[in-house]
Amino acid sequence: GYTASNTAARRVVPSEQQREGRRLVKVVYVVLESQYQASMTSAVRQINKSESGVCVECVGYLLEEIRDPQLLAELQQDLKDANVFICSLIFVQ
User: Fold this and answer.
1) Is 27 exposed, middle or buried (0-12, 13-18, 19+ CB in 10 A)?
2) If you ran DSSP here, which 8-state letter would residue 24 be given?
3) Residue with the larger pLDDT of the pair 31 and 55
4) What end-to-end distance do the CA atoms of the chain give, in Å?
5) Exposure pattern of 56-88 as b/e (b: 16+ CB <10 Å)?
């Protein structure tokens, strides 16, 4: 199981320079397996490096880790000001 959890390491926050003149969108997501987090982090970093009208703050959680009451509370706090919530449970046989 996934026992060591560090959501701070999975939180992507745009720099002040990246935020300048752009609308901030906060995305919170929950996934079943950790490999999906790398794709989300990469996508958000690309958006923040672009010259689009938005920049993105993003934080992810694994389904398994939100069984911990402290991490569940952290997720609930993140959801309070999220613009987008993604929950992806993909099962492949």
Assistant:
1) buried
2) E
3) 55
4) 20
5) bbbbbbbeebbeeeebeebbeebeeebeeeeee
> What are the structure tokens assigned to 32, written together?
């079943």
pLDDT score recorded for residue 32: 85
Helix, strand or coil, per DSSP, at residue 10: helix
Q: What is the pTM of this model?
A: 0.85
Q: Provide DSSP, 39-56.
A: HHHHHHHHHHHS-SSEEE
Angle at 22 between CA 60 and CA 16, to 5 degrees: 70
d(CA 89, CA 21): 35
Of 51, 61, 53, 59, give the one whose Cα is nearest residue 84. 59
- Averaged pLDDT score across all residues of the chain: 89
Tokens of 6: 């560090």
Residues in the chain: 93
